[in-house]
Amino acid sequence: MFRRLIERMRGLRQAAPYLLRPANVNADRAKISIAQLDHHYANKVVALKDVNLNVRSGEFVCLLGPSGCGKSTLLYALAGHVAPTGGSVAIDGKPIHGPGPDRLLMFQEAALFPWLTVRGNITFALGARGVPRNERRERADTFIQRVRLEGFADTLPHQLSGGMKMRASLARALAVDPTVLLMDEPFGALDAQTRVHMQEMLQAIWLRSGKTVVFVTHDVQEALMLGTRVVLMAPRPGRVVEDLEIHLPMPRSLEDPSLDAMARDIRHRLRASEGAALEAPPVEPQQRRTRTPSSVPRPSIVTGR
Amino acid sequence: MLKWAQKLGMIALLFALWEGLSRSGVWNKHLFPGPLEVVQTLIAMARDGQLGGATLRSLGRLTRAYLMSVAIGVPLGLLIARLAFFRNAVKPVVMGLQALPSICWLPLALLWFGLNDSAILFVVVMGSVLGISIATEDAVNGLDPQLARVARTLGVRGPRFYFGVLLPGALPGIVTGLKLGWSFAWRALLAGELLFVSGGLGQLLTMGRELMDVSQVMAVMLAIILIGITVDRVLFQTVETRLRRRWGLTA
């Protein structure tokens, strides 16, 4: 029986790469293009090093990696909350300077205004985006329905559960209708059950709206459940290791066995990238030799032959 | 229920002790009247309109001065919190002046405005405006950074940010500052009224002293305590509790 299990696992692992294919997006066809992005904080910590990423319109890209890999920094650079120290970030070919109406950032916390009701939070945001006063209420109610919060429109945030707060926050984000939705571990603070519900709801809404989403998470299952693409990142320095397309039809279910197989494969790759960094820091000459053969002095190659 | 019983029990105990001490004759009865006599004097003063008139005058002054303090203090606090010039240059001045007890302004006020209401108003305003502006600055700086960030990403700026995010976000803290400012103003007012003839509660106290009427002095003190508690506990406490509940700051 044990042997059969191993055989099955092996079979699944072989199936996984078929579902995960390297992504290849040209910069000129991309909605979001990030080129040679570097960022280091004032304390000299290198958060990002030479990150290149192109995202097509309507894609759902998950940035996946352990803490400290710079995934949140990358997201904040896209949002315009962090000004990167090097490289370029552009949306529709226009470089990003600060937050803009085409993008919206969602946080791990719902970040609702506590003195406003659910509807008040949405209408306030709509007002800031210049929606005429008489249209705000109707539009707010549409999105309250979309996240299934009917009956809670006049409730204050502190009277809602964690999941409901997040749904209200999602309704607010969708109501202002950005073309790019940036999400920073939005479900990280929720309990497991609620998280699954939120993932299913987000998927349904995304399938319907066709928005471009960049979603930061450290949860492999979550990334595979939601994304059309998963970008693996590694820390010290923060960088992109792999960029894979997920070929699995939507809507997906967390129970899908092929998802499990993919998750195992992804975890393996993440561990490999992290392990390499831990075992051999990039300053070691041996490491440098294997990584960039062009920089290796000629004589050693000659003796090698 | 138990809390109230304890509270009332303590007050009853104090009054009984006071009455007992007064009756024991340790001190001259004229200099240390018991609570029964003091309450009687209080009722008599309330009946002949002395107390009512003085209270109205004092509270009228207080209201005017306090409204001025709020009108100056809150915007000043906001400016200190938001503009570098005010933070660097004005804040040290405010902090320095705050170290001066408000009654110290009285001699200057008397020289500038003469023996009239304006002098007292000036002292009261100086006593409360700085406290209010410092509390406002604190409250604005203490705004949840998450809310500031979400306002940025939603593109909330300008007046909409000030009146829609910053002020409501800081409101619980500002109300605490207003409460503090009120108690500063109340103290400054009575100190001012004590020092020169003005027709308020403070003057009633001075009059009691001049007439050697200790029970009047004590009766007015009691009235001052009662008014203070009423405004503080009833008015401000209610507003503060409601606000904190709505803002979700209490469990």
Can you tell me the overall shape of chain B? globular
Describe the main β-sheet of chain B briefly: none
Could you tell me the strand content of chain B as a percent range?
under 5%
Return the average pLDDT of chain A rounded to an integer.
Answer: 80
Characterize the biggest β-sheet of chain A: 7 strands, mixed
Describe this structure in words.
The complex is a heterodimer of chains A (305) and B (251). Chain A has helices spanning 2-19, 71-79, 118-128, 133-146, 162-175, 192-209, 220-226, 257-279, 285-291, 298-304; strands at 20-22, 32-40, 46-55, 60-64, 86-91, 94-95, 103-106, 180-184, 212-217, 229-234, 239-246. With 305 residues, chain A is α/β, with parallel strands linked by helices. In chain A, strand 10 (229-234) and strand 11 (239-246) form a beta hairpin. Chain B is an all-alpha fold. Chain B has one domain (34-246): MetI-like fold. In chain B, helix 2 packs across helix 10. Chain B is globular. The mean pLDDT of chain B is 90. Chains A and B meet through strand 7 and helix 3 of A and helix 7 and helix 8 of B. Chain A: Residues 292-305 have a biased composition (Low complexity).
